Amino acid sequence: DEGKYEIYKAVLKGNKKDIINLVNKELDKKTLPGDIIDNILIPAINEVGRLFDSQKYFLPQLIAGAEAMKLAIDYLEPMLTKENGSAKNKGTVIIATVSGDIHDIGKNLVALMLKNYGYRVIDLGKDVPTESIIKEAKKESADIIALSALMTTTMVEMENVIKKAKEEGLKAKIIVGGAVITEQYAREIGADGYAPDAGTAPELIKSLLE
Ligand code: B1M
User: Fold this and answer.
1) Listed GO cellular component terms (predicted)?
2) What is the pTM (predicted TM-score) of this model?
3) In Å, what is the CA distance from 28 to each residue of 24, 32, 40, 68, 192?
4) Are strands 92-97 and 144-148 parallel, antiparallel or unpaired?
5) pLDDT per residue over 159-200, tens digit each?
6) In what order do the strands lie in the sheet with 173-177?
7) N or C: more exposed end of the chain, with fewer CB within 10 A?
8) Pocket-testing residue among 62, 124, 153, 156, ligand 1, by greatest number of atoms within 8 A of Cβ
9) Strand locations in the chain, DSSP E?
């Protein structure tokens, strides 16, 4: 489909100028905002990552692709909230990208999804020091701490958060996710759960809070 491919290409080319226009055209065709994210924007940024990985793309192209994607997601975000309506508070979630890691597109999607499902979400942002995560979780009596990491060099920080939380006797369940994380890694570091994507995070939390 030509319109969808145009959006895909806009992320690949880091075309910030046209992407909102193209997204609007797709919305006019009644494509759901969530489907634009899941079926076009995420596959596109994954392709950017693949090109970067194989050194066909370099940092400027990686940044431009991410910026174009972010523009589109920020634009679609208010529409996503409407799709699911508002629900009552089901629990408090502290979410953060761990220390040393500035990737936040995936974490933001998870936060958005959880808000839509009626969780009270406190988003601490990216590159968040372990101490801040623990401090906020205590202060807000968090039920869940959700951690994101996108790099093999930063995922180890998740283990530190889990250790610290245990030391401090926090009651919060800790869940992890991000491109480099696997179910097995989550188990190894003693996390309470792992979600492969934003779509499955609400279910995971629901099962942990039951
Ligand atoms: Co960078 N980056 N990046 N990057 N980047 C990766 C992660 C990389 C895999 C690219 C590659 O080489 N193929 C690679 C890491 C290699 C590794 O460690 N294995 C990498 C690198 C090396 C770097 C730099 C070091 C590059 C440099 O400077 N030389 C640098 C790091 C800086 C730092 O953090 N200190 C860097 C910088 C950047 C940008 C700033 C340009 C940009 C980020 C912009 C931003 O986030 N605001 C960027 C991007 C865009 C990527 C790729 C291409 C795409 C990431 C993304 O947003 N994906 C990425 C390649 C890739 O992952 N394929 C790459 C889309 C997003 C929706 O998916 O985040 O996986 P994701 O989230 C999913 C799930 O994982 C899950 O749900 C989400 C939605 O379904 N999920 C969770 C995520 N968090 C969750 C938390 C949960 C549950 C589920 O809670 C429990």
Assistant:
1) cytosol
2) 0.90
3) 6, 10, 16, 20, 42
4) parallel
5) 999 999 999 999 999 999 999 999 999 999 999 999 999 989
6) 120-123, 92-97, 144-148, 173-177, 193-194
7) C
8) 62
9) 92-97, 120-123, 144-148, 173-177, 193-194
The binding-site residues of ligand 1, defined as CB within 6 angstroms of any ligand atom, are 42, 45-46, 48-49, 52-53, 59, 62-63, 66, 100-107, 109-110, 146-148, 150-153, 175-180, 195, 197-198, 201
* pLDDT tens digits along 44-89: 998 998 999 899 999 999 999 999 999 999 999 888 865 444 556 6
- Give the pair of three-digit tokens for residue 121: 């979400």
pLDDT given at position 113: 85
168: phi then psi, degrees, rounded to nearest 5: -85, 0
Atom 60, ligand 1: which residue's CA is nearest? 49
Q: Which two tokens stand for residue 50?
A: 């693949």
- Among 104, 105, 96, which residue's Cα sits nearest to residue 131? 96
Angle between helices 156-167 and 130-139 (to 10 degrees): 40
